[in-house]
Structures are given as structure tokens and as C-alpha cells.
What we know:
By secondary structure, the chain is an alpha/beta fold. It contains seven helices and ten strands. The chain is globular, with a radius of gyration of 18 Å.
Amino acid sequence: MNYDVDIKLETTTVWSFPERGNWATHKPSYRGNWAPQIPRNLILKYTQEGELILDSMVGAGTTLIEAKLLNRDAIGIDINSQAIKLAKEALEFEVENKSKQECYIGDARKLENIISDSIDLVATHPPYLNIIKYSECPILGDLSNIGSLSKFLTEFETAVKEFYRVLKPNHYCAILIGDTRRHRHYIPLAFNIMSLFLKNGFILKEDIIKIQHNCQTTPRWSSEAKKYDFYLIMHEHLFIFRKPKASENLNDFKESMHIAC
């Protein structure tokens, strides 16, 4: 199997990957998974070999595959047992390093198995408010099956607090989140999520615009957009937040945090 990867690392706040990476065991078949170029960039930018990464909505394991290839330890959690099964299967390849990856069924809002201030990087890609149905039988607590925006945000805030607790000070939490529409009007889900992070102590390091490509529903929605007079949403936000150090003076950040919250 070919594990060689030759990609240009990103240097701007606009990322575009028309061709998804297919090295190692990466596959695009799990709907909603992020392109492996995203966690690869994040891991190389914000961690060192041997450090520990958490993806608490791991899906089919894209983040953990990259962690394994790049000699980082990683924990992958998902509320969906089928996702954990796929992630474990995706990790069944050999590399010449001693990194360890662990996958188990769990809830991003209840990370009781992870001690405080122990994670070097949180990198995850949550569901987008009923955009994709991940299971035929609804799973209790599955964020992808929550109908209202207010309920989604209330539940997600619990996860944000857990991200803050387990992350080491002066380390980073990266989250890819998109927006949606209801009744033809724009629902800024991403900025609502950003506000939750700022409200709970994080500082915004980067807001990266990730261009969407090869969306399966685009042909159907193109006709709807023309008929009902709206634009197709073809971007996502990759927010990168930093957990400040305990002794850090946050006066320079308070104004922006107040505005967002």
C-alpha cells in the first residue's frame, strides 16, 4: 500500500481541495467526512510527533489515519457504533512508528475517560444540524438528529466545555462547521458555534474558509436555487481556537469576544 503523500501545506485562510486525498486507507464513501488534507495540515501545524490528538466525532476515522501516518497518538470517539467499526477497520495498516490510536463508542459531551489538560490538539468535524442522516435508527444523543437550532446549540455547548477541559493550555481546538438554510433563508450555524467557543473561554486563532467540491446534492439544489432565488452554500468554516494559559492577560481579546458573544 502506498503511504507516500506529497501535498503542499496551506499558507492562507482559504483552503480548496478539488481532489480528495486517497492515500493509505482513506475513502470518501462515508458521507460528511472531511478531506484528509485538512487534519494533515492541522496535525503538522499544531502538534509534534508523539503528542496526543482527540477527535470526539471521529466518523470513519480520517483524523486517526493521519495521526497514525504522522506518528501522533490519537483518541477517536463517536456516538455511532457503526462509525467506530469503520474507524477501527481503517486503522488496520502498518507503519514504522510506535504511535497508538484508540477508538471507542462515546459522547463528545461526556469525555469522562479523558483527564483534564491532557490533549495536545482537538480536531473534529461535527454534524451540521440534520444535514446528513448517519443512521437509520436514531441514536439517543446523536447531534445529527436534533431538529431545532436552539437545542443543537444547547447540546453542543456541553461538548465545547469538555473540549476546553481536556485540552492543554496554549493548545488548539480545530472544528470544521458549515451553514444551512431553512425556508430559503440563511442559517449561520458556524457563527453560532463560534460564539459558543468564545463564550466558554477559547480565543479565536484562525477562521479558514474551506471551499466545498463534489457535493452529491448540488445538481438537485441548483434547480431549486434558481427556482426559489437563493445562492448555493459552497463553503465551510474551519475555526481554530486556542485555550489560553492560566496566567495570560486577555485584555486584548476581550473586546472581540464580547462582540461575538
